[in-house]
Amino acid sequence: MSGDLNEHDQLVAKLRESGVRYLVPTDARADESQPLNTLDLLNRLAESGDPRLRHSMIGLFILHSNWADFAEQLAALLQGAARIELIAHYMAAVYLQRMWRTRLSFYLDVQLLPDLFSKQLDLPSPEDRFGKTGLHALANWHAAQTNPAFNHLSSYEHVMDLLFDQLEREASAHEPA
């Protein structure tokens, strides 16, 4: 069990370093003797048994649109549940980024993530209704691949709530008094 906590803390620390700072513990420390590169981080998140860690990939991709190449590389290497989780969370980021583009632009320089998997999964284009149609279809696809009782759509949207809360707190910390 302590190994699991250590793994969790390691991933949370690396997420914090990468800009996703809404997960706890806030004082998590990474083991500097075992550095994680981006591909390893995404791989470990995709394979994680903790849904909060898997969902954090959405925030990472929104914050780092230049990580799309890593998603494509890793999807070619992964199989089974980890591949499904990586692709689902990447595409959730693609759709959510379109849905929230204007609001995101208040905090970030938004570079749109490329649509890597919608044709392969027979999902709508991210441009269809600003991503909303695709996000709903993705949630249905994700449920069919994993646990149909799990509300994937709500989870995707919750990540955006957490990310916006973080971005707003960080922006207000930099505003003059």
Please give a structural write-up:
The chain is mainly alpha-helical. 64% of the residues lie in helices and 0% in strands. Helix 2 (38-47) packs across helix 5 and helix 3 packs across helix 9.
How many whole angstroms does the radius of gyration measure?
Answer: 16 Å
Termini separation comes to 45 Å
Question: What structural category characterises the helix and strand content?
Answer: mainly alpha
Q: What sort of overall outline do the alpha carbons produce when their principal axes are compared? A: globular
Number of strands: 0
Strand content: under 5%
What's the overall average pLDDT, rounded?
Answer: 92
Q: How does the major sheet shape up?
A: none
Task: Report the order of strands and helices.
Answer: HHHHHHHHH
**Helicity level:** 55-70%
Low-confidence stretches: none
The number of helices is: 9
List keywords for this structure.
177 residues; mainly alpha; 9 helices; 64% helix; 0% strand; globular
Briefly say what this structure is.
This protein has 177 residues and is mainly α.
Helices, strands, pairings?
Layout: H1 2-17, H2 38-47, H3 51-63, H4 68-77, H5 80-99, H6 101-104, H7 118-121, H8 132-145, H9 152-173
Helix pairs in contact: 2-3, 2-4, 2-5, 3-5, 3-9, 4-5, 5-8
